[in-house]
Design a protein that fits this description.
Mean pLDDT: 93
Structural class: mainly alpha
Order of helices and strands: HHHHHHH
Number of helices: 7
Radius of gyration: 15 Å
Number of strands: 0
Distance between the termini: 48 Å
Helix content: over 70%
Oligomer: single chain
Strand content: under 5%
Length: 137
């Protein structure tokens, strides 16, 4: 059931219906929390964070990203952690907090380097460059 609800949220993301995407992501998170599905719980929280970020509720997004990050650490999932760091970097840039964005992007780059996925690393390098420009570097 939880995966169905989570996937419905993804459909709403595709339609740019972010409020509904958040609603479904949070509903899925509740289901996964009840059944102790940590990987899917972390993913649902990350997705809800992305939705909140799109809605301009960036502080809420960062809170959800932090919760997902803790779960992904527990699961030893460097790929998802790299994605979280990218999302955090984007959120910090939205809040005009470039120093924190740089830290997030750099952490994600290190993880992609460990995993060996250069294609996914490019998004973080791009974000890092933009955050450095925000700081005047």
């Amino acid at each position: 059931m939880g995966l169905c609800v989570l996937n419905m949220g993804l459909i709403f993301f595709e339609q740019k219906a972010y409020a509904q995407a958040v609603e479904h992501s949070l509903a899925a998170a509740t289901i996964f929390e009840e059944i102790d599905g940590l990987q899917d719980l972390a993913t649902a929280k990350m997705n809800a964070g992305i939705g909140y970020s799109q809605l301009g509720q960036v502080d809420t997004a960062l809170t959800l990203y932090a919760q997902a990050e803790l779960l992904f650490h527990r699961l030893h999932d460097p790929v998802s952690l790299a994605m979280i760091h990218c999302n955090q970097g984007i959120a910090y840039r939205q809040l005009t907090r470039p120093a924190e964005a740089i830290q997030a992007f750099q952490a994600g780059i290190l993880l992609w380097d460990q995993v060996g996925n250069l294609k996914r690393r490019i998004n973080l390098v791009s974000g890092l460059g933009k955050a450095q420009m925000d700081l005047g570097q």
